[in-house]
User: Fold this.
Amino acid sequence: MIRSLLLVFVLFAAIGSARAQSLEIADRGTTKTYTAAQLLANKAMRTLQIVDPVYKRPMSYRVLAMADLLSDLKIGNDDYVQARAVDNFSVAIPAALLKADAFLAIESPTVPWPKLPGGSNTTAGPFYIVWQHRPGTDISSEYWAYHLAALTVTDSPAKRWPGLAVGAEVPATDRIHRGLDRFVAVCMACHRFAGAGEGTQGPDLARPMNPVDYFQPAALRKLLRDPKSVRDWPEQKMPAFGEESLSDTDIDAIMAWLAYKAGKR
Ligand code: HEC
Assistant:
């Protein structure tokens, strides 16, 4: 009896894990863990109204500025912050950008947010990175990381994963460079490349094969704009990228970088 009760408990714990119970914040020396209640009690909490691209409508949140949240951490000028969600989504954000323009939105257990659009049965909470950006700054749609579980100060992706780099023979003006930037900011939240990266929601895009080796360019372009226009099944997770999050120029640049890495240029 006790064993079966224990099993029920473990099962519930596993189901509940789609929501982070606490947020872990770490630099290279220390790790701190906060619950939503602890953060909501912070005196620097305030209300922020924004147009939210995840909920696709204006939203009002209780937030803490990232500059306040991360103020005790040791962060170098070129450092990144790896933002990891409970579902293996993991995006590297330049630390300086995060501190300048981002907020941590915290969901109160008593005033829950709406469910995410698209038939989801969860909200974006309890921890969610939201942005109020200055005109002209480039905030990747992947930087709006919800179901957040951890923020960890790390080296830049270029330093951590030199295998992604573009060689010195490629002129600085070549779109291959932009392709790498966009790949790191958008695609690596879910995909690794030849083992490099932390995202594991989608397949590695170099091993065993690079998509440019088996997709016709026009089909790959369509897949990136709207995966369901190429293949469609209920469990499909890859999001469609609209013009506002990935321009045609970005898609061409990413494809150029993938082709470069496959030795096709
Ligand atoms: C939010 C997570 C996520 C992001 C961001 C994402 N993908 Fe995916 N991708 C997936 C998942 C998951 C799959 C596996 C199929 C599925 O479930 O949709 C996939 C499948 C693919 C495939 C098809 C592989 C195959 O052989 O069928 C390609 C190519 C691909 N992604 C490229 C990209 C590129 C390039 C980007 C950046 C522009 C990107 N993805 C961004 C999650 C993501």
In short: Residues 82 and 92 are 4 Å apart (CA to CA).
